[in-house]
Amino acid sequence: MQRPTAVYVWDPFVRLFHWSLVSCVLLNQFVLEEGETAHEWTGYTAAALVGLRLLWGLVGPRHARFADWWPTPARVRRHVQALLRGAPDDHPGHNPLGAIMMLLLMALVLALALTGWLQTTDALWGEDWVEALHEGLANALLLAAAVHAAAALVMGRLQRVHLVRAMITGVKRYD
């Protein structure tokens, strides 16, 4: 079966969500001061973005919906087997490993928002373990984001598709 040269995949909301979340993470990690109001609100904004994306996964267009890309064991197995065979395994939306990464990234953002908020509560303010957990989650998010970006570049090369451009334009273009 011949694959198309271009497929419209990512709707404007998904693209805005993606780049807004990237901006929130980068701001909080490298620009804003920990514990300051701007840092807190940027974290809450990131959590709100994830909440909206979760809702969009239920009501959004086809490739935004969880049903289109949820990483079931069978989907993951087929995808990994195809990768190991070097066979094309095209997915208009997220491939199963990409879907796992997306879910992990969103879970980390939500966990960061929770532990950040917990640090502002009377019960846990100043608790070292909450601060250490928050910092560990932030480091895990950065590592996962780096793996995600590297995987997008590698998979783009392997499958000859412009994945980064697709997250800007919404269209996957194949070579």
Automatic annotation (TrEMBL):
One Gene Ontology cellular component annotation held by this UniProt entry: plasma membrane
Occurrences of domain Cytochrome b561 bacterial/Ni-hydrogenase (ranges): 9-170
Source domain of life: Bacteria
Single biological process term from Gene Ontology: respiratory electron transport chain
MF GO annotations: electron transfer activity; heme binding
Keywords: Cell membrane, Membrane, Transmembrane, Transmembrane helix
Keyword match Transferase: no
Database matches in Gene3D superfamilies: Transmembrane di-heme cytochromes, Chain C (1.20.950.20)
Membrane topology: Multi-pass membrane protein
Signal peptide (UniProt feature, chain positions): none
Protein's UniProt keywords contain Transferase: no
Residue spans crossing the bilayer: 97-117, 137-158
Compartment(s) where it occurs, according to its Swiss-Prot or TrEMBL record: Cell membrane
InterPro entries per UniProt: Cyt_b561_bac/Ni-Hgenase, Di-haem_cyt_TM, Hydrogenase_cytochrome
Protein name: Putative Ni/Fe-hydrogenase B-type cytochrome subunit
Organism lineage: Bacteria, Pseudomonadati, Pseudomonadota, Betaproteobacteria, Burkholderiales
Encoding gene, per UniProt annotation: hupC_2
